[in-house]
Design goal:
By secondary structure, the protein is mostly beta strands. The protein has no helices and five strands.
């Protein structure tokens, strides 16, 4: 889990993959969601494939400050 606060626009990498391998790569934080009952912060993320997912803070292993969106190439 990352130590620094995560903000909208930050780029993150996840600590797990999806069975179909679609979860690999960098994701942009697009929304900070309310915390779970346990207190864990949740985020809405978007990948380069344009897919959005909801994740918990403990699923993030790397966080980079705001950068070029990995999903920007899929828009338009």
């Amino acid at each position: 889990m990352t130590e620094r606060p995560i903000k909208v626009g930050d780029i993150v990498r996840l600590s797990f993959g999806f069975a179909d391998r679609s979860g690999e790569g960098d994701y942009e934080i697009i929304r900070v969601m309310p915390a779970r009952e346990s207190g864990e912060r949740q985020y809405r993320i978007r990948g380069i494939d344009g897919r959005e997912r909801a994740i918990g803070h403990n699923q993030i292993i790397v966080s980079k400050a705001k950068a070029k969106s990995p999903a920007s190439g899929s828009r338009g």
